[in-house]
Amino acid sequence: MKNYDKLLNDLAPRKFGKTGVIWTISLVVIIIAGLIAYIDQIIKGQVVTNMSDYALWGVYISNFVFFVATSFVSTVTVAVLRLTKNTWRTPIVRIAEIISVAAIIMAGLTIMIDMGRPDRLMNLFIHGRMQSPIIWDVIIIPTFMAISILLLLYPLLPDFALLKKYFKNTKPKLSKWYGKLAMNYSGTDAQKRIHLNSIQIISILIIPAGFMLQTVDAWLFSTLFRVGWDSTNMGAYFISGAAVAGIGALVAVVYVIRRAYHLEEYITDFHFDKLGKFLALACLLYLYFNINEYLIPEFTSKKEEVTHMNLLVSGEYAPLFWFVIVGGLIIPIIALFFKKGRKPLPMFLIGLLVVVGSWWKRYLIVTPTLLHPFLPIQGVPESWHHYFPSVHEWLITFATLAMCLLIITLLVRYVPVVPIQRTADEQEALESNKNTKS
Amino acid sequence: MNNKNSENGGTNRRKFLKLGLMSSVTALAGTSLVSNLTSEETTNTSGEKVRLLTPDGKMVEVDASNINKYPEALVTPAESRKGIPDRKFVMVIDLSKCKNARKCVESCQRGHQLDYNEEFMKIKLIQDNQNTSPYWMPKPCFHCEEPPCVTVCPTGATFKRDDGIVLIDNERCIGCKFCITSCPYSARTFNWEPKAKFENKDVPYSPETQVPAAEGTVMKCDFCPDLLRQGKLPYCAQACPMGVIYFGDKNEDIVTNGEETVRFSELINNRGGYRYLEHLGTKPNVYYLPPVNRQFPLERGFDVDEDIIDRYKDVPYVQELKKQGKI
To answer: Would you indicate the residue range of the signal peptide (chain B) (predicted)?
Structure first.
């Protein structure tokens, strides 16, 4: 047990400091404001939003798509890095799993905010029809959620067992909880074997599940006739975009946790350097699909496509469009090419930029398309020609984002963010390697 | 504004014609379209005659078997999924006759208890390209043969019936709005807020009337199956003073605008009938006759309220007219 002492002291969950408490309270306040706005929306109807018969999907749907995209982070980091045997992933995988769980839970919740009749949710199960892409979503989101939770929980079992012992005398109540969560894991050889096999299976399962989730999300749009959505590029476009959003969020969260918990010893510049290269790769891929998505319609110049492109490139949405392309993709790519750009602080700023860019990117995918249907918008009030979220929509959207951060915060508070057992094993392996060499 | 005056003269005479019971009087043989839409067995003339009073006070004599026994009977959501037997409804809109009188819109709004901005029938001002002249285009729901809205509905709240009509069951609709985004013709509307008229439970709800509507659900043009069951034309076709809208049955190959009854196939063949956005493969059941040999100059359509004209201000042609001070 001795070699665990330092690790446990460093990595065991501990109480928040003053900043942590203020942070949590502010999140709760934002959530309460959003809840009040949502209750008001239920009472007054969706008329409190700025949506109309034309722009009938707004920030709720784009926010939903953002959460779905961010939940992809566990697929790209945990599963893909595991299969490619990239051992540098160890200290950051758990954070990725936490983000993924929080994001997919929020995706499931936010989609309901947009429903005109949330009281009839059960109709999806009573009268569900397999032809509808919405039903595909209803199937894949809970599936992905379940696999994500398992992917977070299974590798945690040995750590929970360790924490049970660690807190036995100081905090008996907490220790009891960890004991229950550890599900009698004691590290016998048989347990270790089953444990390893299970993790292996889950981390393979999360790959097709993640790809299906992103693809179904893309198909929600590409199965429709609308210009800007009716594109065969959508599936790959969404998957690569999800990798960008996910890794961007991971970088930002890792930086904050590293600072708050003083984990500089475990999450080093080396890890940021690797993450930076990974993010650059994702951004380049996404840029490639963006070029496909925008350049070809511009080239063929079909009438409707030109209307759509003009709206984005030089019209109402131009400032956002260029912010997303330049700020959210090109600047990060250039910065990440330099070694200095992959140091922790610049990486944090790039991560934030990428996440904000990813959020607005979803907004640009969802809303402008609806404003130029095949038949011109005529004979309706002037306000139906445009869309920008109302105060209600912003309050509710910020509340969902805050709720996602709160889930992450709570998990970070009670779960060791860097796997203790795994780190110990790796250190041991390193030691024995040294011994055998010398 | 001054349209209100002309409202009476033109339409009443036609209403009389549209009364299903009058069908036996019209000359063409195939007019059983407007008779007895609900009867499932073939009509045998019983020989027994019944005298009836039409709305404008004329006495007519019709065969007793032509009378629909329960025209106003409630069609429940479950029953409304079946459709009217042996019918295949179709609409033909003659663009050469439309002058934006908006009677179809107003009549539809009255019939479906819609508010000012809620329109199932919309009138667009379309200019296909710079060199062609613009025209008024009344646009209902196209009741497609391959309706994308029905495919994407997650709960089957919107459905396609055997008689070709696409309806919505607002007791099943969850308000996801996916059908609205799927419709390439923007035919669907959403009830964004609770309204007093939704609470009116005097009439039990039927998808065939869409009354009372419900908050948070989708609505659209329904081809008025409740009127069809009574042997009447839809509100829009009844109300049009120009006879723009022909409605009928593809199976019988007959359409009528209330004034003249013609063969559907002949009408669309001889007049170059087409369907809007044919290339999408949705196979609409609404056909258009091209705006050739116009009966009215386009400007006649601007004889409407100021705020209605204002709705077309984005059309280059309208901007041009405004510059010239014509409107």
So the answer is: 1-29
